[in-house]
Write a structure and sequence with these properties.
Order of helices and strands: HHHEHEHEHEHEHH
Radius of gyration: 17 Å
Strand content: 5-15%
Structural class: alpha/beta
CATH class of one domain: Alpha Beta
Number of strands: 5
Number of helices: 9
CATH topology of one domain: Rossmann fold
Amino acid sequence: MRRIFNDPALLESFIVSLLVLAFSAGLSLVLSWLWVCCHALARNRVPASGVVLVCGHQLEQGRPSPDYVARLERAAQLAADNPALKLLLLGGGQPSEAQAGLRWLKAHTGLDPQRVLLEEDSTDSFENLRFARDLVGTDRPLALLSSRYHLGRLRIFSGLLGLNATLVPAETRLRVGLRLLALSVQEAAYVAWFVSGLVWARLARREHLLVRLR
């Protein structure tokens, strides 16, 4: 919340999303949750070449969290099955999520580190993809790998940034439970916030918001 109140653009979009939520009687959140759930069922095939963008996750005492480990394990498996694939680990911080992911891959897999690129400047999922676009461009096959509950938000972000990326779930199957329910609702809140802010920025021509989305 501190980041929201310290950033006028985030605060404006957050207030708009709350108003939309109230005036829609919660429908904006329900629709966002259905979007998240539909994308959690993704089964798209991974391209045999190109780059797999591996989303980071908040570290736990400087080490990858269980969700991040699942993403790294899946990425390493894909790289082993497809020798022409490269990995781009996403996520900044101190230490960076990307660097922590590379250390984990070196310690737990036989993957050649030369096949791994790092993006260490981003602070959130949208910046993950924006900086990844700057690093690898949009003219090669791309896959976007993350936890199932995260894929719906990434589909919106990647479309907005012009990334034609295949969604790849870290988990081999959907594990339904209270944790997934809680995470999907949280993701739905993020989606509702982002979409409400985006629509408001375009309708009201709020250039200071739109410039953040390019």
